[in-house]
Design goal:
Blueprint: H1 3-19, H2 24-33, H3 36-40, H4 44-57, H5 60-68, H6 95-107, H7 114-233
Helix pairs in contact: 1-2, 4-5, 6-7
């Protein structure tokens, strides 16, 4: 990054901010341009103006960068590390395959220098060691992953078995509940039938007693009627024991009177 590039990126936005009364959108845009590389190569006058602007606009990170970059630089260089995914180990395009090819070519070089060979062998050995280490690590991770998968599968099987057992147990409980309810209903019905039977027996007994009382009452009434009838039509003489006959008109009976005596003719 050069000072010319930095000024070209920053100065237009600085002028717009001064002309448009510090719009928030312009402040954010200017802050995005003020990277550490850009701030490092800006002139001192620009840094002073930006410090005032950062304080009033509420940009503490920009203010910190301005305070850090106090040197007057016109160019800034830096190195960036890029991480790339490595190919799979021990494949046809892997580093291990390439290293083995290099070692083979090294053995067939007729003009091989001992020092060069030594350096290449050291590099190849270090690379192979790294490849073997990564391969071992991959195998261990795969074995661990397989073991975890087996454990998870076993846990799922156990959970399923427990769930099925619980469902079966619950079904048994439900069956028992239905049986108990059925027994309760049958018991209630039997109790009701027994009550009805007792009521029926009591009614029969009451009816029999009533009929017996009526027969007894009728027999009493019949006996009273017979006695009354006998007294009316079976009046006997207190002395002879025979029934007395009614007296004729004007004639008094000579019999049956104890005080009269028979007169001679």
């Amino acid at each position: 990054m050069t000072r010319t590039q930095a000024n070209a990126a920053v100065e237009p936005l600085m002028r717009r901010i001064q002309e448009e009364k510090w719009q928030p959108a312009l402040n954010d845009k200017l802050a995005s341009k003020l990277t550490e590389e850009t701030v490092a190569v800006l002139p001192a006058s620009t840094k002073t103006w930006l410090a005032t602007w950062a304080t009033q606009a509420g940009k503490p990170m920009i203010l910190e960068r301005l305070q850090k970059c106090t040197e007057d630089k016109i160019e800034y260089q830096w190195a960036e590390t890029q991480i790339r995914a490595s190919p799979a180990l021990w494949s046809t395009t892997s580093p291990a395959e390439a290293l083995l090819d290099n070692l083979f070519e090294l053995t067939e070089d007729p003009d091989l220098n001992k020092e060069v060979a030594r350096q290449k062998l050291k590099a190849a050995t270090a690379s192979l060691r790294y490849c073997l280490f990564k391969m071992e690590e991959t195998v261990k991770l795969k074995a661990k992953a397989d073991a975890m998968n087996e454990i998870n599968a076993l846990q799922d099987t156990i959970k399923l078995a427990i769930k099925e057992e619980m469902q079966s147990f619950q079904q048994g409980i439900d069956t028992i509940k239905l049986a108990v309810e059925k027994l309760d209903k049958q018991g209630a019905l039997a109790s009701a039938n027994a009550t009805n039977s007792m009521d029926g027996i009591q009614d029969i007994i009451k009816l029999a007693i009533k009929e017996e009382m009526e027969r007894f009452q009728q027999s009493i009434e019949k006996g009273t009627t017979k006695r009354t009838h006998g007294e009316a039509f079976s009046n006997t003489d207190s002395h002879s024991g025979e029934p007395s006959e009614p007296a004729q008109d004007g004639v008094q009976s000579k019999q049956g009177h104890p005080s009269q005596k028979a007169r001679p003719g």
